[in-house]
Amino acid sequence: MGRTLQNTMINLGLQNACDEAVYQLGLDMEELEEIEEDAGLGNGGLGRLAACFLDSMATLGLAAYGYGIRYEYGIFNQKIRDGWQVEEADDWLRHGNPWEKARPEYMLPVHFYGRVEHSASGAKWVDTQVVLALPYDTPVPGYMNNTVNTMRLWSARAPNDFNLRDFNVGDYIQAVLDRNLAENISRVLYPNDNFFEGKELRLKQEYFVVAATLQDIIRRFKASKFGSTDSVRTVFDSFPDQVAIQLNDTHPAMAIPELMRIFVDIEKLPWDKAWDITKKTFAYTNHTVLPEALERWPVDLVEKLLPRHLQIIYEINQRHLDHIASLFPNDVDRLRRMSLIEEGDTKRINMAHLCIVGSHAVNGVAKIHSEIVKTQVFEDFAELEPEKFQNKTNGITPRRWLLLCNPGLAELIAEKIGEDYVRDLSQLTKLHEFVDDDLFIREVAKVKQENKVKFALYLEKEYKVKINPSSMFDVHVKRIHEYKRQLMNCLHIITMYNRIRRDPTKLFVPRTVIIGGKAAPGYHMAKMIIKLINAVAQVVNNDPMVGSKLKVIFLENYRVSLAEKVIPATDLSEQISTAGTEASGTGNMKFMLNGALTIGTMDGANVEMAEEAGEENLFIFGMRVEDVTELDKKGYNAQLYYDRLPELKQAVDQIKSGFFSPKEPNLFSDVVNMLFHHDRFKVFADYEAYVKCQEKVSELYLNSKAWTKMVIRNIAAAGKFSSDRTIKEYARDIWHVEPSDLKIPPPNEPRDAGQDKTPNGTAA
Q1: Taking the chain (764 residues) in consecutive chunks of 10 residues, what is each chunk's mean pLDDT?
Q2: What's the burial of 705, exposed, middle or buried (CB within 10 Å: 0-12/13-18/19+)?
Q3: Which long-range contacts (CB under 8 A, 24 or more apart) does 671-674 make?
Q4: Cβ atoms of 521 and 87 closer than 8 Å
Q5: What 8-state DSSP symbol labels residue 113?
Q6: Per the residue annotation, which of 478, 492, 549, 551 is the catalytic one?
Q7: Which domains does the chain have, with CATH numbers?
Q8: Count of helices and strands (H, E) across the chain
Q9: Residue 273 catalytic?
Q10: Among this protein's residues, is 59 annotated catalytic?
C-alpha cells in the first residue's frame, strides 16, 4: 500500500489546505510525509495491483472490501553492504499505525489440525486447535466522491485458554509463552515473488485469511435484508447475486473448499446446491505462467492441517474427473493432466486447477498472457469451457501514480485538457492536439528536468554520488529475477563501458543507469545478480576515462515510496523480460504515464502499450513469443552467440576473468555457468538486438525535441492503463455490478431519507 497520508489528502481534496495549515505551524509537509513508514504487505506487482484496485473500486463507488493479513513484519528492508543484499526486519508498526482501527467486536475463530467424524447428520471437524482472527480496518477513500471503503486485515491472536485447557496445567508460564505459536501466523510476510515455497506456516497463513474472511462475508450477508429466510428460497439462494469474491492468484484458493465446508457441513445444504453457489461466487485471476511459481501443496501437509478440506477437495476432484471421463471416454492422459491431484513421489494438490474448476470466470492480466493461459498453461480446461476464460489487462491508479508523485506534470496536463482526466484517463488522448505545440513541448521537457534535478539531489543526499542531471536516466526497477533479465541490462552497461574506453573521444550520450529491486532471501542467483551490478558499478563509477559519461547506481530498498520518487525522473524505462514470461507488468504503465520512453520486448502489457501508442513510439526489440518457442524447439545454444558477437564475448570474459572482482576472480562463476548452460530466459539470444535498440535510444535522446514529442505521444496513449478501466471491466464482465458516478453527500450535509443512495447489487 505504501504511505497513506498524501494519498488521503489528495482523494479528499484537502492537500492544499493541509499544506497551508502545516506551513503556518512552521512545518514542511514534505518533511512530515517522509516520516511515515511504507505499508509493505506484499512482494511486488501482485500486491501493488491490489492496492491500485482498492483505490479504483472506491473511486467508482463500488461496495468493495480488500481482505488480507496484517503482517507484523512486511517485506524486508534491503541494505547493500559491500555490494551484497542484506535483509533487515521491516518493523513497520514500531511507532504505531494511525490509519488502522482494531475491531475486536468482529473477532472470529479459525480452526486447524484435528480430525473428521462422519455420522448420519454429516461430517464434523473435531479436536481442532483454535486461533482467533482480529480484524484491523483501514479506510480506503475514493477520489473526490465521499466514498470510503474498507481494507480489513486479519491479525492472529491466541485464545485466552490456549494450552491451558489441556492437561499440562503444571507449566502455566510455558503455556502463556506458547501463545506465540498461534500468533506467529500473522508475524511475517513470505518474501518470495513468482516462487512457491511449500512451508506449513505459509499454508496456515493462506487458510487463516480465507477462513476469517468467509465467516465475515457470511455474517454480513445474513445480517442484510437478503440473508433473511424467504419461504420459497433457501437462505443462500441469493448469495452469488449479493457476493462476488475475486481470488488474487491461487494464494486464497482454500476459500473454495472452505465455502463448501460451510455450506455442506454447517449450513446443511445439499452438495450440488452448495457447489452451484460456490462456483457462481468465485472468480480467479492468474498472475504468472512460470511453473516454479504455481502452488502445489503436498497432500500429506493438507491432510494434517486441514483434514476436512482434503476430503472436500477429493470429492470435488472425483466429480470433476467423472464429468471429463463422460466427455472423453478412455482418455486417461487427459484425466491425469486435468486432475486437481498430481501423482508422483509426493502427491500434490494443483491449486490453479482447483481455482479453475471452482470459479465461474478465469482471467489473465494482459492480452498476450490471457492467450498463453488459454492455449498453453490451461489448454485442456479452456477447451472444455472456453467461455470461462477472459482477459482483464492490468492498470494503475492515476491518483498515486500521477497526481501524487508528479504534481508538475499533472498540473501541466490539466492546463491543457482540464482536470476531469483524473477520473477518466482516456481523456489523455486530447494531448495529441498539442504534440506539435512548441511551448507545450518545452514545458513537458522542463517538468522532466525538474524531476530529474530533484531526484539527483536525493541520490546525492542518500548515496553520496554526484550525478549529471542532463544525462539520460535509464531505469530498471522491479523485483530481481532471472526472467526479468537484469543481467541483460548489466551486459549492456559493460558494453557501453568498453566502447567508451576503446575510443574516449567518440561522441557518447551520457547515461545514468539506475537498477533497483529486492531479491528473495533464498534466491541465490538473484543475489549474485545484485552483487554483479554493484561490482560493475564500482569499476565504472571510478574509472577516470569514463568520467560523467556513464554512472551506475543500484537503488537500495526499492519500495512504493521510492518508486514515487524515481519514476517521475526517468527518461528510459527498461521492460526487457523474455517474451512470454511477464504476465503483464505494471511498472511499465507507471513510466509511460510519467513521461518516460520504453525499451522493451513484446511481452505482457508492453504489447498493448505499443498498440495504443504505435510501435514506432516505443523501442521494441528482440524475440517474440513465437521466436522463443521456435528456439526452444531447435534448442538454445548460448555458445553460438558468444562465439559470433565480439562485444558479448568481451563482456562475458570480463565477468568470468574477475575484471569486476579482482580479489575473487571466480566470484561470478555461477552466473557465467548459468548463462552458458542453463539460461531458461535466453539472455544471449536477445543481447545483439537489445544493444542495437539502445543505440537508437541514444540517437533520439540527442534530439531533445523529437524525444519529447515521442514522450507526449506516449502520455496521450496511456489512458487505457488506468485501473479504473480495469475495474469497470471486472465489474461488468465478472462481478455483474454497476459502478456509480454518484457523489455521496458529505457527512455534514443531511441525507434525503427518502432516497437510498446505495446502488443495489454486489459487494466484491
Answers
A1: 98 97 97 98 94 98 98 98 98 98 98 97 96 98 97 97 77 92 97 92 98 97 75 77 97 98 97 98 97 96 98 98 97 98 96 98 98 97 98 98 98 98 98 98 98 96 90 98 98 98 96 98 98 98 96 98 98 98 98 98 98 98 98 98 98 98 98 98 98 98 98 98 98 95 80 46 48
A2: exposed
A3: 671/487, 671/525, 671/528, 671/529, 671/532, 674/482, 674/525
A4: yes
A5: S
A6: 478
A7: 37-190 (no CATH), 202-392 (3.40.50.2000), 450-719 (3.40.50.2000)
A8: 31, 22
A9: no
A10: no
Q: Name the residue type at position 165.
A: R
The CA distance from 615 to 617, in Å, is 5
Q: Active site includes 478?
A: yes
Q: Is the pTM of this model over 0.90?
A: yes
Name the catalytic one among 261, 309, 360, 590.
590
Distances (CA, A) of 47 to 51, 217, 249, 559: 7, 22, 10, 12
- State the catalytic residue, choosing from 3, 70, 251, 287: 287
> Given 353, 479, 492, 559, which residue is catalytic?
479
Rounded Cα–Cα distance for residues 256 and 247 (Å):
10
Cβ proximity of 577 and 604 under 8 Å: yes
Check if the beta carbon of residue 538 is closer than 8 Å to that of residue 488.
no
For residue 543, give the 3-state DSSP assignment.
Answer: coil
- Which listed residue (308, 400, 452, 484) is catalytic? 484
Establish whether 484 is a catalytic residue: yes
| Residue indicated by cell numbers 490539466 | 414
531 part of the active site: no
Catalytic choice (288, 586, 726, 762): 586
